[in-house]
Design a protein that fits this description.
By secondary structure, this protein is of the alpha+beta class. Helices cover 50% and strands 20% of the residues. The protein has a single domain (2-127), classed as Sufe protein. Chain: A. A four-stranded antiparallel beta sheet has the order 1-2-3-4. A hairpin with a 7-residue loop joins strand 3 and strand 4.
Amino acid sequence: MWGWFIVVFAGIWILQIIMTKIQLKNYQATLKKMSSRSSGYLGVGIQKQKLGIGMIAILVTDENGVLVESQRMKGVTVFSRFETYTEYNGLHIKEMKEELNQDTDSQAFMMAINKIEAQMSKKTNLAV
């Protein structure tokens, strides 16, 4: 009895490791594709919960801070994949911040926006 339990447990554990590697490759491929633009800024934000649905948001803006592309991965399993999210496309990140309400999704988007703003201010400080 215990032998089968250990075999099943080990099998599930190995399957989880394999699926996590597949999800990581999906994340890396999405990030590489979105960062291939010749100019602009990229920000990644995460929203984690101990129990419940987590989310990763990847935002790409042009040089002026206007959102040109965004993707999000939302879910609780290793089967979650990135999907295009166009709700805020065309908005400046300041306008986007105003439109974000304080639901669970906004945390990941706000983190990504803050990273983009940090890059923009760093570039502005270098130019001065």
